Here is the input.
Amino acid sequence: MTMSPALDPIPAAPVATRRPSASMVPGSAGQPLAPVFTAMAVLVLTVLSLTFARSADMVAALWGSAGVAVAVWLRTSRGPMYDLSFGGLVALGLAAGNLLAGNSTLQTAMFTVANMLDIYVAVLLARRFAPTLNLSSVEGACRFLVSAGAVAPLPAAVFVGGMLWWTNGADFFETAQTWWFGHALSIAVVGSFGLAVTRRELVRFRAPARAAETVVLLAALTVVCAAVFLRTSAPVAFLILPLLLLIAVRLRVLGATAGLVLITLFAVGGSMVGYGPYAAFAGPERAMMAQLLMLLGYLPILLVAALLEERDRLSDRARAGQARAERASEAKSRLLANVAHEIKSPVGGVIGIGELWRTGQLGPITQPQTEMAEMLVKTARQVEALAHDLLDVARAESGAVKVELRPTDVPGVLDDVRRATALRPEAEGVRIETISEGDGLVALADSQRLAQVVSNLTSNAVKYGGAGGVVVLRARRIHDGVRIEVVDRGPGLTPEKQAQLFEPFNRLGLERSAVEGHGIGLALAKRLVELQGGSIGVDSAPGQGATFWVELPAA
Here is the structure.
């Protein structure tokens, strides 16, 4: 029976344009054959169940019609008129099936009412507690299994148990239990399979390799189930669970539900005709054992498949988010590079004009004009330095910065940085020392980029920690590398500020202070150190100064 095209949901029309029409009842445009096919399937399954699977008085242990009806009803609902027509056709199929199976008119009416109660309550609970009908998440699968599978058959089970006790003197608990387990199994297994069959899922199996894998796995499961449940001995029963797990891992929810349908048919059906591991039990007990095996032993695998599918979906979202973030980062880097490049030319012109003005080459100037010219040049040079830093950051983030790793004498780099920093105006009154602990302090690094990093750290130590009067540049050997430390005796940093140190344009609240800076030097230093295969960090506490360190592999 090929019904998958009719089972796929079609998006509802917008509320503003939706009007009552013939398309909301069976036989009109949209899905005219779904209710008819469902009624025919219910009729056939009812006859088969009542003919081969009765176990407790007149109650069948295997009842596939409930699962089929619930799945199709949920997937094709079009509104109250459609529900009424669909329910009427399903009830007609149930009644015809009961009559064809030999039930009396009274019994047919009783079982038709009970089955419709079963199906309708399952549909209502699924719409209320699992409205998305999404079995590809653990929450969605649990909501459907508990509401529609476990809870929905209870009212009908109580009704049938009471009616058969009153009319036939049957054991109430035995008949209610058989009904409950059989219908819960039908909705949980057959209903889940019906909800899992979507166009999107079927597309995944179009590839020849995936289709062949599906056929092989389900065929292997069929062979093992036939050997276990259609024989009195079961030497390969231990293979069912690993096979079902493999199907869940490889084929996800659709494959797992298909496997559960196969196992249910063999387990409950084989038990009803006297085969399998429960052949020694009486009818009701035999049915209950097979039902419990499915409900407690194999049905939880559906949650495993849902968990794997949910993980796949979250992984896809994470990859898509990462791709978007990388594209945004590349765009930002390009923007920074373009802005920095465009800034450099006009700023160079401003500096040149300011120097000409300051030196009097544009004509005589007064002392206030000289001071203004010096301020102009100083500000322009700050903008120029910012443009250079922006270019470096953009190049580093885009991977355009190339580092040439070679053996680098670390003490020599520290000494060069010390002499260069000592000439800066902000280093006046600050003693800069270098300490080399041990011999062989040779790192595998790019000497130019390493000097740039250490110079940045030393400049920051002088500007922000120079109040302590001393800045120490130390190099020492660690287990498999060289550690460079820039130590100041300044005010130190709180843990909160340490966590924000290497963020671009973050000056930790010093934006309005007299200390010059742009807040991108440490971010650039971090990227340059990482490009050289090293790591960078800080050790500090309020009032105890700060130690910025860089660790690089030894040459």
